[in-house]
Amino acid sequence: MKPIHIKKEAFGPAMAKAMETYAVAGPVPDREDAKRRHLFRCLEKGETPDLEYTATQLSPKALLFPQAETMFRFKVPSGGKKAPFLEAESFKERPLAVVGIRPYDARAFDMLTLNFDSKDYKDPFFLKRCHQMVRVGLADTTLKDTNFSTACGTGPFDTTALDILLAKTEDAYIGTVITAKGKSFAAAAGFEAGSAEDTKALARMKQEAESRMRPGPDFSALADADTLDLHGEDHWARLAFSCINCGSCTFSCPTCWCFDIQDEVTGNDGVRLRLWDTCMTDLYSAHASGHNPRQERFKRFRNRFMHKLKYFPDKYGQGIMCVGCGRCIDNCPVGIDIRTIIGEMNAKAAGAAKAAGTAKTGGTDKATEAAS
Ligand code: SF4
Ligand code: SF4
């Protein structure tokens, strides 16, 4: 890992230089509400990622998995003499560098990849972007109270999903180049080499940021828990009581990947779109027959948390489907906190494990009873 040091006044020119080779995306004030919000988007010539931002309401997920994406276009000629034809959507050629992404949001990109690049299915739209993308992270030194990313195995300075990590100091961005892709980007941007002092400062900042974080929820009992025990209905109706199924949690979550596919046709021209969807709404699981296996609100609520905390870990063996960014907590209009749900599920799982252990060690093993 090579240290880098960019004086703040040199950052804008460095980005302009990088844009000669890369398309650049980053956090910028929202045009519609610049005072309150930043969002991630592709930047135009002359724009610079605003690395002084604190948080974004929406994650950068849309850069990899757009909210609305054209899959292809089609035309149905009139008169029935010619066959209908399809036209593939072309990709932009230049690789995209996402500059200023939080390290835990970059980890979320890896979770999305598990879904879109699997043994059974390789999504060409997602993969083209994913393989070309350069991730230039910005350490989170302005952590919100709702952030529990270290408990989820990542954190404000995690380098595992990044090509470059930057951290802001008073007058500079110091950091480290992690991968070959990062090295190419640093060269294209003309980033200056840093010193051993920068490396030490980065380590100090990491320790300081992590020490300020509150302990996260414990989900250690979930892996061995019985899925049907956790799925049982008694506690879900209570946990979901105030949920209005608005979907804010899923749309703002960097790891939620549900989508819908729709055709839009005007005259003889059509377009097939892939659009973000949310398992929190009843239409999501409605069958064409009219039957809906998740008609009740609590069943949709349960599905979201069971997917993140049990089905995903069981399927992929890579921890829970959550990077602890805290956005779902900040954006929920009724104050539902995923840390509370994790705590309740874990307590239920731990209680069931304890009861099973007691049954065995206490001489009341059901199998023994049944055999006698
Ligand atoms: S944001 Fe809150 S109210 Fe809305 S669907 Fe999610 S948990 Fe329910
Ligand atoms: S579930 Fe909530 S805390 Fe976890 S990654 Fe999604 S938005 Fe962030």
Q: Give the terminus-to-terminus CA distance.
A: 65 Å
Q: What is the beta-strand fraction? A: 15-25%
Which ranges are low-confidence, i.e. pLDDT below 50, for 5 or more consecutive residues? 362-372
Rg over CA atoms: 24 Å
- Report the order of strands and helices: EHEEEEEHHEEEHHHHHEEHHHHH
> Please, what is the average pLDDT?
91
The number of strands is: 11
Tell me about the largest β-sheet.
7 strands, mixed
How would you describe the shape? globular
Overall description:
- The protein is α/β, with parallel strands linked by helices and 372 residues long.
- It has helices at 8-18, 103-116, 124-132, 180-189, 196-211, 227-231, 234-239, 248-252, 282-285, 297-316, 327-331, 338-361, 366-371, and strands at residues 2-7, 23-29, 38-42, 68-75, 85-88, 96-101, 134-138, 164-168, 172-177, 259-266, 269-276.
- It has two domains: 2-65 and 84-211, no CATH class; 227-356, no CATH class.
- A seven-stranded mixed sheet has the order 1-9-8-7-6-2-3, sandwiched between helices.
- A hairpin with a 2-residue loop joins β10 (259-266) and β11.
- α1 (8-18) crosses α4 (180-189).
- The model is unreliable at 362-372 (pLDDT under 50).
- The protein binds iron/sulfur cluster (2 copies).
